[in-house]
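Chain A, query sequence.
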Amino acid sequence: MKLFHKILVFSIFIVISSSGLTSIWGTLFIKREYEQRMKNILSFTAENVSDAVERYIESTTRVVLASVKKYENLPDSERILVFGEIMRDFKDVLFLSDGKIYVGDIQTIKLQDLKAKSGTIFQDKKIVIYSDGITIVMSKEPIDRIIAGFSIGQSGQIEIEQNLEGLSGIIPVDSKGIKAFRKIGNSNMYVSIFLPQSEIEGIWKKISSQVLFFFISSVVLSLILSFIFTRSITKPLSKIENLARKYSKLDFSEKVISSRKDEVGEVIRAFHSMISEIEKSWEELKRWNLELEKRVEERTAQLKKMHDNLLVAEKMASVGTLGAGVAHEINNPLASSIGFLQIAKIKTQDENAKKYIEKVLPNLERIKQIVSRMSYFAEVQMKAEYSQVELKKILSEIINHFEDKGKVFEKELYDTSYIYADEEQIRTALYEVIKNAFLASESKIKVKLYQKEKTIFIEVKDDGEEIPKEYIKRIFDPFFTLKKWEGIGLGLTIAKTVFNNLKGDIYVSEDDRKTFIIEIDAEKNKEIKEFLKEEEEKIKAHLV
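Chain A, predicted structure.
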């Protein structure tokens, strides 16, 4: 069968099927279902109203009877007062009697009806209840209020009737409409619900319009499906043509896959298989190229890092060598000079000479301090005695030292893993960092110690001025300082050297240039312990 014939047969089948099914469904099923549902709704509503009225009558009767029985042993003179109280409590009770005492409007009931009876009677728009020799007459108004709480349609009517047959049912009312009724308990009263034919037909017209809409929609849908079916043939072929142009430019971002089992599907699958092989080869080539570029970048980064590390190491080594030489050559002469000047200051009687000596001595003491710091830097570079230390304890001691100097410390010190370090060196490094923040701050320093997974963090922040961006890379260089009034620029250099030796680092936060962040990799720090253990074993083996 040709393609055109397939489309034509499919379109005719859709149109006939959709219109035929719509017509049959609309005429035979919907109307019958609609009529049955309307009757069910009326019956259900009548049942609900009947139950509500019955519950009201039963509850009121039960309470009134209980009140009357409670005082049945009282004298008649007292009982009549009690009956009056009961009627005041139940405003809808018009008359109450036990055969001897009558309270209420006697006109509401015939005298011959006061004889002992049982049951509930609807009489002259009033409800008369006989139970155990007690007669109760209630107004119909509460029942009218209960009925007013229900509604059926826009023009449906709910009423109380008498003298109907059966417990419930549906009654056609000529051509005016239909009526459903339901008996109220064991009384002679019925709840009847009337729905006019005009409202029934109005609702049916709405349903008919929906059926017509469905019919038209089915015809339109059949035409749309015909168009879709045609496009399902021509679109894949057009897609293959466009993709062939893109694939020729090595653009494989789009794919065309078909599950069709006709000739068009076979062509699409063959085309897809061919392009998949081409794309696979191209991706393999790109992966080799990317891997080569990645290796070049990694190697370049390694070389740059090695170069930077060599420069830093060379700089630190130079400072260490300089420190050791200066300490050796200057310390002794400097100590002698300071000592002789102090003696001269004591023995001289010349006031001018004393003033000159007092000016020279602080400068010599500063030189001595510089030499001492350089000497310590050389020791950090050359030796260390590693042991297990607790950072929280050391930080607490350093903070306590500075807290007595007039500035506020905010500290958050959490428990962390122990690290392996030279306790004197780690204490000095932390002291230098906190001292740096103390000198830069105006009134407040914040110190935080915590651990995330295997990395220990120490954050030291002050409320002073931020470090200028141009000085960030130089802040740890030897002899570089922003504090012209104090220090020689070796404190942070020593700190960085110590932390680097502990498999960690110190740097200035990019987000807040008032914050120094110290990181120590606890896992890598353990390598120090393993290294020391291996060295100890080597020494023992050598001694043996």
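The mean pLDDT is 77. The chain is about 60% helix and 15% strand.
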